[in-house]
Design a protein that fits this description.
The longest helix has 17 residues. The chain starts with 34 loop residues before the first strand and ends with a strand. It has 113 residues and is an alpha+beta fold. The chain contains three helices and three strands; from the N terminus they run E-H-H-E-H-E. Bound molecules: L-tyrosinamide (TYC).
Amino acid sequence: MPHRPLSMADKIDGPGQDTSLLTKPKSKTERPPLYKVMLLNDDYTPMEFVVHVLERFFGLNHAQAFDIMLTVHKKGLAVVGVFSFEVAETKVAQVMDFARRHQHPLQCTMEKE
Ligand code: TYC
C-alpha cells in the first residue's frame, strides 16, 4: 500500500454518507463583533438619575428606562444595549463621565457578546 497523507476523500462516515463535499463554506462577509453595554447596581445612585441616563444616552422612553433601571436595582445588572465596539465604548465613557460629574458611583461596562 502506497504511503501518502490522509485526505478528506479517505474520511467516509458510513454507507452513502461521505460529507466531505457537503460542508457549508465559511461566509465571506464576516459581521463585526457586537458588545453588550451594562449598567451595574449600587446603593447610592438615585433611581431618577439612572432613568435619566437611560433616556439621555440610550434613547429609551420613560417607561422602558424605568423598567431597565428596576431590573438593575433588583438583579444587580442589566444589558441596556448592544453596539459596535466604537459605539459601546463611547456610551460607556459618556455614562461614566456624566455619573462622575454628578458625583454618583454609577458604573457602566461593556462585554463582547
Ligand atoms: N439601587 C439604587 C437605589 O436604590 C438605584 C440604582 C439602580 C442604582 C440602577 C444604580 O444602575 C443602577 N437608589
